Amino acid sequence: xxxxxxxxxxxxxxxxxxxxxxxxxxxxxxxxxxxxxxxxxxxxxxxxxxxxxxxxxxxxxxxxxxxxxxxxxxxxxxxxxxxxxxxxxxxxxxxxxxxxxxxxxxxxxxxxxxxxxxxxxxxxxxxxxxxxxxxxxxxxxxxxxxxxxxxxxxxxxxxxxxxxxxxxxxxxxxxxxxxxxxxxxxxxxxxxxxxxxxxxxxxxxxxxxxxxxxxxxxxxxxxxxxxxxxxxxxxxxxxxxxxxxx
Length: 246
Fold this sequence. Notes:
InterPro entries: KR_dom, NAD(P)-bd_dom_sf, SDR_fam. By secondary structure, the chain is of the alpha/beta class.
């Protein structure tokens, strides 16, 4: 790859929410970005059009991260259109708050298939296909440190992601690739706000010492740092971003 070509970043689950803000942030910093989506084709296409209109290089690639075949195709299509991957952001995830005893087999499997197996699939593909000196950022959650009732299965799926992060960082020795995770607290996205009363939202807002919800841009700023040369010495870490909540 010539030095004139932009670095390439795949962001999973990037058609909306935090993922879309991360895509805009990295595009603005000169990355060619891949907007991965599972089913939100309209939103992904719209985001790509917006980024291109602003002069950035962007493509949308449909892939279900829980499918190893889809993840391989995600990398194949990225390489064919933009070149080899430099940065992988594992943002795709699902959350259903429900007591452990009320989880169905299907809900358990969906949670682990997307949150944990999805991360495993992309890491495994990245092991041989990421450029040397690359960056990987996985998504955990600050709930791992809070142990909130109703979050048991979700927390378990994200705790596994933290373990994958820390071991994989060591397994990539010699490649100059860093592997870290960001673990947000409550962030004011449509996904978080949906179905909550104003009172519930205010309760969450007051929990951190900084007395507000996180914003998607707060998380995008951290991603920006972790993929930059400034974070060369940060590796195998889980960065909790929650305003001091835990």
